[in-house]
Amino acid sequence: MRVGVFNPTFNVYGGGEFVAAVIANTLAQNNYDVTLFTSGKVNQREVKKFFGKSLNPSIKAIVQPSHIQPGGLLDFYQSIFRSYILKSKCDVWVDVYSNCVFPWTNISYIHFPFLNHYNYKPRFPYIKSPHLLPTGGLPYAFFEKKLLNTNGKIIIANSNYTAEEIKKNSGKETTILYPPVPSVFFNNNPKILTKTKRKTLVVTISRFSPDKKLEKIPYIASLTDKDVQFAIIGRVHYKKTLLSLQKLTEKLGLNDRVLFFTDISRIEMRRLLEDAKIYLHTREYEHFGISVVEAMAMGCVPIVHDSGGTREFVPGNLRYRRIYEAATKITKELSGWSPRKAIENAKNAEKFKEENFANDFMQLFNQYTAQNF
After folding, report:
1. What is the DSSP string of 310-364?
2. What CATH class does 2-180+353-372 carry?
């Protein structure tokens, strides 16, 4: 059976791309003929560097180059066109990118729905935001709400938060499957996490992108003791964001306390997390938050914004609404950090292991093929 996995931004190496990699590898390991559809050539060395393992060598890649910025209106319609054309090469089509349910797609993994309360109303005339993308996507909104039949399809949401958005704005029922966390972040014996003396270090892992709200970090740092260091780790997706953060850090006189680690490997990332006591997540209304779980698996205490999918696995006492609250909670958790807390966080993260995701996805996939082939 030929299975296509659609993820044009595979070489971005973020959480969504890791989901695509695990799905493709899982299907290949179960002896399916897998093709990955992407906009750039797959660099196995880079894949291993950022995800901890390479793609299965049996996976074929079909590269369709694109010079369109991901996430925009042109990219939205390009994805529709490419997805429709490329589906003809496969028996089963798994879309891990579009965040939509197209008529020809068999399995859709939704990170956050295209039809959501920020841009669209649940009822006619649907349009809520006057911005280009929602306005240009109005024809699709009419189609999905009125004409699309999802019977026989599998729609997967990455969190309850995402599932509620899908239900609210399109009425579709979904299956919840939390994203996977790379195996490299887990130890067979969590007690190993307590052997290294940890620093007063706060780590954030994120793409350098405007929507991640990373500008909070220098301000939060300025409200904590001078011996507390902050490390921002990430892929440089928007260079302007990185430069702006560096400029703000310098302006606040925090160059010796807020450090930047760009485009480093998973192994290097793991070393920094082993040294840290706290993980700070700055994005608001995060759809899930894989990096939060990665840090928990390494024994860090998570401090997250009180919104979105992170509310589903981070306790209320570790969530904040305002910058000063984040600084206060960081100070408290730094002084209260203990080996027991490190082990406790690591154990709480285990349910998100890569192998658990792989097993659950294959159950859904086998269910689909048993009913349709």
Report:
1. GGGTS-GGGEESSHHHHHHHHHHHHHH--HHHHHHHHHHHGGGBHHHHHHHHHHH
2. alpha beta
